[in-house]
Write a structure and sequence with these properties.
mainly alpha, single chain
Length: about 90
């Protein structure tokens, strides 16, 4: 697999990853507001209780991480179906 395909793969996954991460963050913020009734806390605000800041960090980290995992798997399947070979990072 040549450097051109590796570059295309990185661009492909990067763009899809950025878009889905932004969407996931918006959904997580909306979900937090729905569940708690408040806006997500700012981790740098000294008035935010530590447990609240940690809960938000955990929820957002898991949410974005799972979204990125699923996006990369979907992109790899799509790449293989359209290009006809495994993505350049598979091994």
């Amino acid at each position: 697999m040549g450097p051109t395909q590796k570059l295309l793969w990185k661009l492909y996954v990067g763009v899809i990853g950025a878009v889905t991460t932004i969407a996931a963050q918006r959904l997580l913020k909306a979900g937090w507001k729905l569940v708690t009734g408040d806006e997500p806390p700012s981790p740098t605000d000294p008035d935010t209780p530590v447990i609240t800041a940690m809960s938000w960090a955990l929820a957002s980290g898991i949410g974005v991480g799972v979204t990125q995992l699923l996006t990369q798997r979907m992109a790899a399947r799509h790449w293989q179906r359209e290009i006809g070979n495994e993505n350049p990072n598979a091994s």
